[in-house]
Design a protein that fits this description.
- The chain is mainly alpha-helical.
- The chain has two domains: 38 residues, no CATH class; 48 residues.
- It is 50% helix and 8% strand.
- The protein has four helices and two strands; from the N terminus they run βαβααα.
- It has a two-stranded parallel ribbon.
């Protein structure tokens, strides 16, 4: 019997999360699935190092939110919203490449 169509699902090796996810049940559930939890501890000083890679995601969201249609989702259909998301990514790449060559 053939398997499902498409690429097989892969579990991540580890998952990063902020202080909101720092709890025993969250950590246990991830470990049961074979995923290493990298979660910031509550009631500790900031600067745990998670922000280094998280900043990349926050920055990208900020760049995408410069486009009004992506900041507030007006589109009901997912395919149209995805098309505007792709256009926003193209615009970000174009601006980045234009700045590096000119």
């Amino acid at each position: 019997m053939p398997g499902k169509v498409g690429r097989p699902h892969r579990r991540p090796d580890r998952v990063q999360g902020d202080r909101a996810y720092d709890s025993g049940p969250h950590r246990d559930a991830l470990r049961r699935r074979g995923i290493e939890p990298v979660l910031a501890r509550r009631n500790t000083a900031h600067g745990s190092g998670l922000g280094v890679s998280r900043w990349v995601v926050e920055r990208t969201h900020s760049w995408l939110h410069q486009n009004r249609r992506l900041r507030v989702r007006y589109e009901r259909r997912a395919d149209i919203h995805e098309a505007f998301l792709i256009l926003g990514c193209i615009k970000i790449c174009h601006d980045s490449l234009k700045a590096s060559f000119c």
